[in-house]
Write a structure and sequence with these properties.
Shape: elongated
Largest sheet: 11 strands, antiparallel
Mean pLDDT: 79
Oligomer: single chain
Strand content: 25-35%
Number of helices: 8
């Protein structure tokens, strides 16, 4: 392994980090568990000694629970002293950057590392360059604790230093050169939710609404003679369209509606319309999902029941927060949640994963409301797009195998305006002829 070291942090919670790396041991294939702080420091200290002096033995002894182990920092192995079972270990360098500058101060490193590891909190206080910041963990942004906007009209603070918002980055360099699992992390931050979108004011006039609808659908208004030729009723209200009493429009090049009826189907907040007849979508529908993270990992050794390929593991994490204006109770707190979902790593699963990513970016997968599981209001809940939350157990357990799942979930996503503009390609090459759950009702 390379000998280059860098000032980094460990998993400490009450320890100013002096190690340059974190060490992990592998309880099973493709999974790694971190050592506790003391053992991490012991292993890293011995590793540095071996790097400095090749004549030193690479073996260091540790204990985990009631078992004794020997660690070989050259071969990157952990051996049980009694059973002689050998497991892999891994060394990970961790670098932290604030506003593009690598952090070297141990106190700042410790604050960043502790906050990043504590899944029960959404923010933490970090001191940097003699100033205190609120570190928003999921957003990886630090905001000055003093709101300088409040000082605008305050004569006593005219000379106050205006502190910038600081981006935070965390980089992991895995040593030795061991191939990690493929991991993708998508974020939904406050800044992303506040970004400009195609929305209309609540007091928009009917003329404004019709103008926007015409702009996104390019509908064509029929004249009196054209209306008289129509024999079908309006698909929405089921009243005749050839009386000349109402404006009739054509969208999608073929479907006709009363304009007033079509306006009732128009999502005015998101400037979104789905044709009631052919289901073609116009505009972009956006939801009310709160801030959080979507982590996607491909696990080649995990199987979904009924498939002989690897598995895509999706982890959603939403910290506690405060409801925004688009939520049921603005200003009130809401309860966060964590969810794990699975897809087979084949063409079907990857296709649906692409749609999930689009739905995530449009804030459509989750919302804030009443939890069906706990009955509690003000909770982060699913938003009508079903996920498989187990790899085995069949339809009744929200798991695989489920032969119609991909068609159903694609329909649910289409209902929310998410489409890849082509039909799903069903992959039978990874389907197993016999499955282990064939005694269940699917």
């Amino acid at each position: 392994p390379p000998t280059t070291t860098t000032t980094t942090t460990t998993t400490a919670h009450s320890f100013i980090p002096k190690c340059t790396a974190k060490w992990f041991w592998s309880p099973s294939r493709n999974t790694f568990t971190p050592y506790d702080v003391n053992k991490n420091c012991l292993i890293e200290s011995h590793y540095q000694k071996v790097l400095a002096n090749s004549s030193i033995s690479p073996i260091v002894s540790i204990s985990l629970g009631n078992f004794a182990y020997t660690i070989d920092v050259r071969k990157f192995t952990q051996k049980n002293a009694q059973s002689r079972k050998t497991r892999r270990i891994r060394r990970v360098l961790v670098k932290w950057f604030i506003a593009g500058v690598e952090v070297s101060d141990p106190h700042t490193l410790k604050a960043l590392a502790d906050a990043h590891q504590d899944t029960s909190i959404a923010t933490a206080v970090v001191e940097y360059n003699a100033h205190k910041y609120d570190f928003y963990i999921d957003e990886m942004v630090m905001y000055p604790q003093v709101d300088h906007h409040e000082h605008t009209n305050n004569d006593s603070s005219q000379n106050a230093t205006l502190l910038p918002d600081l981006d935070v980055e965390r980089e992991e360099i895995i040593l030795p050169d061991d191939q990690p699992e493929r991991v993708t992390v998508l974020k939904m931050t406050e800044q992303m939710m506040d970004s400009p979108q195609d929305t209309l004011p609540h007091d928009a006039s009917p003329q404004q609404l019709k103008a926007v609808l015409k702009d996104i659908t390019a509908y064509v208004a029929l004249n009196k003679h054209q209306c008289e030729q129509l024999t079908d009723d309006c698909p929405i209200c089921l009243y005749s369209m050839n009386t000349g009493e109402h404006t009739v429009v054509q969208i999608c090049g073929r479907d006709h509606f009363h304009l007033e009826c079509l306006m009732q189907c128009f999502d005015k907040h998101n400037c979104f319309l789905r044709c009631p007849m052919c289901f073609k979508t116009y505009g972009i529908r956006r939801g009310t999902m709160p801030r959080g993270t979507m982590t996607i990992q491909v696990c080649p050794d995990v199987r979904c029941s009924g498939y002989n390929c690897g598995t895509i593991v999706i982890q959603y994490r939403f910290p506690n927060g405060v409801q925004r204006k688009e939520h049921p109770n603005p200003g009130e707190n809401y309860h966060g949640t964590s969810r794990t979902a699975y897809l087979p790593d084949n063409s079907e699963g990857r296709y649906i994963l692409k749609m999930f990513k689009i739905a995530w970016e449009r804030r459509l997968l989750f919302t804030v409301g009443r939890s069906v599981t706990t009955g509690e209001d003000n909770s982060v809940i699913w938003n009508g797009v079903h996920h498989k939350t187990s790899t085995h157990g069949g339809f009744s357990n929200f798991a695989f195998p489920d032969d119609t799942y991909f068609a159903r979930v694609q329909g649910e996503l289409n209902d929310k305006g998410v489409s890849l503009q082509k039909d799903i390609v069903y992959d039978t090459s990874t389907r197993m002829d016999t499955v282990e759950d064939d005694d269940e009702e699917h």
